[in-house]
Amino acid sequence: MYLLGLGLVLLVMKYLAVGPVATWSWWLVLLPFGLAVLWWAWADKSGYTKRKAMEREDQRRQDRIDKNREALGNLPNKKQR
Fold it and tell me: What is the model's pLDDT at position 79?
């Protein structure tokens, strides 16, 4: 996502001829977009995206369990005697 944002900023700066970006080649300005596409392709192919989504779901589930235990008066991860 950072590469996409950087690409947009560079694109606007090149279009408006702001600063040193105005003299850069269009290939250099558009490079972050290509890198973002490569990143997304790698993340999908390697399972990185799915793994992160599963981690978020697991964390939400654990937070919900902990919240319910606290509401019942049970402290999470502690043995009761």
Answer: 56
